[in-house]
Amino acid sequence: MSDIRTQALACRDAATAIAALDNTARRLLLLDMAQAIDSQTDTILAANEKDMAQAAAKGVQGAMLDRLRLDAGRVATIANAVREVADLPDPVGQVTRRDQLPNGLAIERVRIPLGVITMIYEARPNVTADAAALCLKAGNAVILRGGSEALHSNTAIAAALHVALQKHGIPAAAVTLVEDLRRETMVELLQLADIIDLAIPRGGEGLIRFVTEHARVPVIKHYKGVCHLYVDKAADLTLALDLLIDGKTSRPGVCNALETLLVHRDVAAEFLPKAAAALRQRGVELRGDERSREQVPDMAVASEDDYAAEFLDLILAIRVVDSADDAIAHIRRYGSDHTEVIATTDQGTADAFVHALRSAVVMVNASSRFSDGGELGLGSEIGISTTRLHAYGPMGAESLTIERFVVRGDGQVRHPQSRA
Amino acid sequence: MSDIRTQALACRDAATAIAALDNTARRLLLLDMAQAIDSQTDTILAANEKDMAQAAAKGVQGAMLDRLRLDAGRVATIANAVREVADLPDPVGQVTRRDQLPNGLAIERVRIPLGVITMIYEARPNVTADAAALCLKAGNAVILRGGSEALHSNTAIAAALHVALQKHGIPAAAVTLVEDLRRETMVELLQLADIIDLAIPRGGEGLIRFVTEHARVPVIKHYKGVCHLYVDKAADLTLALDLLIDGKTSRPGVCNALETLLVHRDVAAEFLPKAAAALRQRGVELRGDERSREQVPDMAVASEDDYAAEFLDLILAIRVVDSADDAIAHIRRYGSDHTEVIATTDQGTADAFVHALRSAVVMVNASSRFSDGGELGLGSEIGISTTRLHAYGPMGAESLTIERFVVRGDGQVRHPQSRA
Prior knowledge:
2 copies of one chain form a homodimer.
Chain A: H1 3-19, H2 23-39, H3 41-57, H4 62-68, H5 72-86, E1 95-100, E2 106-113, E3 116-121, H6 126-137, E4 141-145, H7 151-167, E5 175-177, H8 183-190, E6 198-202, H9 205-214, E7 227-231, H10 237-249, E8 258-264, H11 265-281, E9 285-288, H12 290-295, E10 300-301, H13 304-308, E11 315-321, H14 324-334, E12 339-343, H15 347-356, E13 361-366, E14 383-389, E15 391-395, E16 401-412
Parallel strand pairs in A: 3-4, 3-6, 4-5, 7-8, 7-12, 8-11, 9-10, 9-11, 12-13
Antiparallel strand pairs in A: 1-2, 2-16, 14-15
């Protein structure tokens, strides 16, 4: 048997032990994990220094290097995030529906854990603790496959988590960190359909496409967030400008940042020059169609590719549209099903926009930047799904569970002639 | 562009038209579909005769041939099943959760259609109408890929459905029947991840494994139903015998039939001889372990394979166990996560059995044969999932929808410094 299969089987056995814990026990386990992270801060930082030195030697710099970096404050933040997950409401065990059938059968739909979840992710070492905490909170075991650049840091964090698992008598395999980072091993992991219940890839589009192409286990993911703001003719333009600035500039490198602005032709002359000035003042490069360039002549010409792009940068594509229907058609064509925003004071237009678009999150008069598990009240977020299956949009602990059927009877048979 | 991709794109466009219909319109559409099936009975029967003749020429016989056969009564049943789906509660549009956040954001979780669903199935022509009706009821478009042996029948049924679609101004592509039945075309279909939201295979384990191995679109399925009845030491043995006979003999060829009987050692001597007599009287072949053969000496010896088998036939594997925990361990090892039954009067044992097992359906003192969408109150059933993701157990129309987020604000931004 291959090493990765052996590891995965051990994780599945550990999943049974995790699933048997009640919420009190899972909470205490997570609090001890946070404590172990705190008390092993020095070890974690030493490991991180090795990763940083290797990355620097490879020429990694800037934002990439910063994502990898830990310091005492960041380690404390990681531990506190685990504490927050510990205190979330119990996502398992709830009876979500109850029916009593005429034949006397009592049917409950009850939330149970998924089983074994594998997370495939890139540089940030905090994902190791975050993902483990959320999976365990929902009663699952987890197989973590991080990036090679963070291996020392991830190993040190996992070692701290294992201390807490051991204290609670749970096999360390409940949080399995894959140390063999060859691509073929990841492919093998993603094909263990008899062991693994779900794979969640987090990272660049290339990683996510690789996972999707090679997986035989179910995958929940989003490739990218091409989020739109449509400024309707009935928009409050001051409000619309706030949403635009927040959506584009408050954190341009994340998936819920705005990438495209659509403006109704009736308000383009009033809105676009103001918007362009405010955005440029904040360093945003603008790329527009012909009609938006009529309002802001020194704007670059937007290409077809610009409208499909997730810039992850201070760049905005702009188009003037003739109607809300045109905005909807544009979003259907270029969108990524992630998050769309309409700014309008017309309730009918807002409802039509919401109904016509099937993106995971649709905002009316609110910033796309709220499309986030924490901001939408899910507690911590394990990812955002545009898979349109199981979960759609921000995913919290509950998305790591599933409803099953429990049926209680007093001897009901389906065919009465079956009675002895 | 390949033909199948062109067809799938047309289906996706039609999905937008279906999603725009309200429940009243979807209901009328389905009632007209039922009407069209009724009025085209002769055409459908003529097409079915061609399929029957081809199948007979190929040497198909017995149950296989019977599954393919239509007559006027069966066509009427198909039409009536569509009427039943028409009258199901609307599975889309419901607000499943509502939150108001401290910052004033109003968050709704709303059920929307999945989009485009593809059904891959074998001989029974009724699936063509059943699957189309359920997918449309939930606001989805569907791509149907049936078996070659039923192609004439499926084409005639789809033609009837198209008459109703045309009457309602919906593109026929909303119900697309794939007529190119080459395996490579099915593989291509299953890889259209940018178009198709879900594949549901229904048929033999071979077909389902083929679909799972080749799909890049999400797949919900179950391979087989190895359903267990555990007769506890505290069981009402008369009740247990009823469940056993119903589970094993009322329809042995279906996935919710019992395949294995586990009996607590304390009641084996009393229960097994009676059970063996009752089952043999109904033509059931028994295969047991050593301890069950002590009670019923002329029973065949069960192999390891027998305990993992879905016999789909009048054969039952039997084992005597030392405890409920042993029964749980046996089911964990050999089970298929489909449906398990405990017969016991001990509430604590029942609860422990339910909690320890994570099968999709767990029955206490009720027959495994109730593990069916219709019997559990879901209305019509599109399939049964052991995928443990999105849906787990019998799947009705609601499983063909997903919850998304709708957020209404009055200008909330995530970073107050974003205001202009």
